[in-house]
Amino acid sequence: MSAILETFPNPNSGRDYVITHICPEFTSVCPKTGQPDFATIELEYVPNELCLELKSLKLYYYSFRDQGIYYEAVVNRILDELAGACSPRRMKVTGRFNVRGGISSVVVAEV
Predict the structure, then answer these.
(1) DSSP 78
(2) Per annotation, catalytic residue among 16, 23, 37, 66
(3) Catalytic residue at 30?
(4) Which of 4, 10, 19, 106 has the highest CB neighbour number within 10 Å of its CB?
């Protein structure tokens, strides 16, 4: 993990409820061309005992800016690391990657 993900106690751990965070300014680098990739990352989860703290989540997303990584790897890595940090009841990460060469891509992973 490139940045430290902080958590805080879920104030309603006895109830299932959905938290959605949307980051419309996600960037990484294409490992093949070195060109920047732009995406909107949508995180949806049902917390268990812990919730993700937003400032650390923002810094975590920013840590990808200089990393050469494919779309599929980005989304699955984010899911693995975020789920590892807070052990949610369920979690889904959707990466909506901007058009490159006439094709936009959407990658979804969930646990």
Answers:
(1) H
(2) 37
(3) yes
(4) 10
For 19-76, the DSSP string reads: EEEEEEEEEEE-TTT--EEEEEEEEEEE-SSEEE-HHHHHHHHHTTTT-B--HHHHHH
Residue 53 phi/psi, 5° resolution? -85, 135
Q: Would residue 37 show up in a list of annotated catalytic residues for this protein?
A: yes
Give the per-residue pLDDT at 101.
85
Q: Where are the domains of the chain?
A: 17-110
Q: What is the pTM of this model?
A: 0.95
Q: Is the pLDDT of residue 3 over 90?
A: no
pLDDT in tens, 33-43: 999 999 999 99
For residue 3, the number of C-alpha atoms closer than 13 Å in the C-beta half-sphere is 19
The CATH number of the structural domain formed by 17-110 is: 3.30.1130.10
**C-alpha–C-alpha distance, residues 94 and 88, integer Å:** 16
> What percent of the chain is predicted at pLDDT more than 90?
95
